[in-house]
Amino acid sequence: MAADPKKTLEELLRHLGFDATVEPHEMDGGLLLDVKADDAGRLIGRQGQTLSEVQYIANRMLFQQDPSAPKVTVDIGGYRTQARDALVQKALAAAEKVRRWGDIVELEPLNAFDRRIIHNALKDNPSVETHSVEVEGTEKKVIILRPRH
Amino acid sequence: MQAFLDYVVKGLVERPDAVSITPVERDGITLFQLRLHPTDVGKIIGRKGSTIHAIRSLMQVGAAKKGIRCSLEIVEEEVDGSAPQE
Questions:
Q1: Residues of A with CB below 8 A from B66's CB?
Q2: Which of A49, A91, A134, B78 could form a disulfide with A45 if both were Cys (CB 3.0 to 4.6 A apart)?
Q3: Are B20 and B35 within 8 A, CB to CB?
């Protein structure tokens, strides 16, 4: 059975009591499912927690429909885009500090999804290199920025 | 809420025909008892409980929106027919 991301996500949200429409957009690195829904704040949750759970369950269901289906990213009202922009700004500000003062800068613990955004934003930066370091008691890791030699 | 559980759980397992969901009312809270084909239990629990955690958490979001209270448990039947346990 071929996977149907739009229908799967719309049904999922409808059963939860959200009146939602889903627009699929092709993007590099997979499919973006953009949700238009009433009560978007409730669906995003604290720090995007609910949005991440919606995305996780949708991906598990799509995988069950078709193991070769591409992974989807779920966004609501531009939340992910905005959160991503904020992370990139934070990465650039930290990199500037490293470049200017030669300090080592440590960012707060982040999940893998958010760390990837930071690593990517700085991967071609000539003055800093980035590493993830484990933090006890959480799956999250902190990113350390050092001067590149 | 049962429709949500039915849709998600059947969409995650190899044997949707073996899925059954029984609502039990207690003190204004609906407890959904989920029964699965034994080989599907791991699929619904997920690595480190990640899948059942996400299902429960989304169920709470939907319940809050609808103003109801509910919870979910997986009931594993013993093969020899002795008392069920979680």
A1: 17
A2: A49
A3: yes
DSSP class of B67: T
Task: For A9-32, write each residue's pLDDT tens digit.
Answer: 999 999 999 999 999 998 776 899
Cα B24 to Cα B34, B67, B83: the distances in Å are: 11, 18, 18
List the domain range (segments joined by +) for residue A104. Answer: 83-147
| pLDDT tens column, A39-57 | 999 999 998 899 999 999 9
Nearest to A53 among B11, B57, B66 (CB): B57
Query: Which domains, and CATH codes, for chain B?
Result: 2-75 (3.30.300.20)
Q: Provide ipTM, 2 decimals.
A: 0.88
CB-based contact B13 A64, cutoff 8 Å:
yes
**Residue reference for tokens 């997979």:** A30
| Close Cβ partners of B74 (under 8 Å, ≥ 6 residues apart) | B34, B35, B36, B41, B44, B45, B52, B86
Residue of chain A with shortest Cα separation from B55: A57
